[in-house]
Automatic annotation (TrEMBL):
Named cofactor requirement(s): pyridoxal 5'-phosphate
Database matches in InterPro entries: ArAA_b-elim_lyase/Thr_aldolase, PyrdxlP-dep_Trfase, PyrdxlP-dep_Trfase_major, PyrdxlP-dep_Trfase_small
Keywords: Pyridoxal phosphate
Annotated GO biological process: amino acid metabolic process
Organism: Enorma shizhengliae
Family to which the UniProt record says this protein belongs: Belongs to the threonine aldolase family.
Domain named Aromatic amino acid beta-eliminating lyase/threonine aldolase: residues: 4-290
GO molecular function list: lyase activity
Name of the protein described by the UniProt record: Aromatic amino acid beta-eliminating lyase/threonine aldolase domain-containing protein
Keyword set includes Nucleotide-binding: no
Annotated Pfam families: Beta_elim_lyase
Length: 360
């Protein structure tokens, strides 16, 4: 049976694999200085509407977060983030190991809010040099628990940060899913217009691996980060000799020749398919009697399940049980279902039928 464990279990989308095979015997300059990385960066700049943006290709999400955070902040600063943001629970202290302390709020659903950050900011102002100074905002689109930020929410965070001269960084490991979520009004162009930095994730959207770290030169923090990034990338061991591999994949994903009738290049098409499968799956699970954590149109769906249901769902569908505080007080936990660019349409109906069969 098809597995709904994550969005990186498969290899790469066929068009991206074809591009790798087609260019395989080309001899390219190393360390990302090749023509494929250059063209991929130009295609990304054109897609986001920021011709002067810096684009750095990094192998994975954790290194991208390390580089974004360390380049945008000083050694005595740290990022404001939600308590269940990815760096706080799934990166083994990577940010702290690189000299930055995470300043976590009590916001739920991995979602950062201005009200959640205010006490941390006030404490920093009150205590001055005795505490880590906030230097930036970290949040992801979509959030760790599938929340999709609206344009209004995003602008509120950017305004709050600008008033305090803080940088804004959006972890976009699932940026494609967030931007293609049904009903969203937050576009990649608007994110690029306001954020100091963000990533366009490839690992979870049809590539073998890779994240594109985009930094804006509009702000002082952005310009400082761009100046530091080449050195920090090498120091962190993230400058890959065969950087051309990421260049080829991003070049294929953002190739204008792949635009469909909706005007979307391959990168967005892959996420649109994943999201459509996720929404169909969520509808079926709800009809089968499972309660969702929240209503979302991204490719991560979270549902409450009893321990027995969770164990059988994990065994049959590969989905991931998660400990969580059950508001009903009945001892349920969360189960995460994730779709991808490669999820077969018929697998969704099969998954719903299986979930219905194990419902207690």
């Amino acid at each position: 049976m098809h597995q709904f464990r994550n969005d990186y279990s498969e290899g790469a989308a066929p068009a991206i694999l074809d591009a790798l095979v087609r260019t395989n015997l080309e001899q390219c300059v190393g360390y990302g200085a090749d023509e494929h990385c250059s063209r991929a960066a130009e295609l990304i700049r054109a897609e986001i509407g920021q011709p002067d943006a810096s684009v750095t290709f990094v192998p994975g999400g954790t290194p991208a977060n390390i580089l974004a955070i360390t380049s945008l902040t000083e050694e005595f600063e740290g990022p404001l983030c939600a308590a269940d943001a990815h760096p706080t629970i799934h990166e083994t202290g990577a940010i702290e190991a690189h000299g930055r302390r995470l300043l976590a709020t009590h916001d739920p659903l991995g979602r950062l809010t201005c009200s959640g950050m205010e006490p941390l900011w006030a404490a920093s102002v009150a205590n001055g040099a005795a505490t880590t100074r906030p230097g930036m905002l970290y949040f992801s689109q979509t959030s760790e628990l599938g929340y999709v930020y609206t344009r209004t929410e995003f602008d509120a965070l950017c305004d709050w940060a600008a008033e305090r001269e803080l940088a804004v960084y959006v972890d976009g490991a699932r940026m494609a899913s967030g931007c293609m979520a049904a009903g969203t009004d937050l576009t990649i162009q608007h994110i690029a217009e306001r954020a100091d930095a963000f990533t366009l994730g490839g690992t979870k959207n049809g590539m073998l691996f890779g994240e594109a770290l985009v930094v804006s030169p509009r702000t002082a923090r952005g310009r400082h980060a761009i100046e530091r990034l080449p050195y920090l990338t090498k120091r962190a061991g993230q400058l890959t000799a065969k950087g051309r591999v990421m260049g080829v994949m991003y070049e294929a994903a953002f190739d204008p020749a792949t635009r469909d009738a909706a005007g979307e290049v391959l990168y967005w098409q892959l996420a649109r398919h994943a999201n459509a499968c996720a929404v169909e799956l969520a509808r079926g699970l709800a009809d089968a009697g499972y309660e969702p954590l929240l209503s979302t149109t991204g490719n991560q769906q979270f549902f409450w399940a009893t321990p027995g249901e969770a164990a059988r769902l994990a065994e049959g569908l590969g989905c991931e049980p998660m400990a969580a505080d059950d508001p009903s007080g009945t001892g349920r936990g969360l189960v995460r279902f994730v779709t991808s660019w490669a999820t077969p349409q018929n697998a969704v109906a099969e998954a719903v039928a299986f979930a219905r069969s194990v419902k207690e």
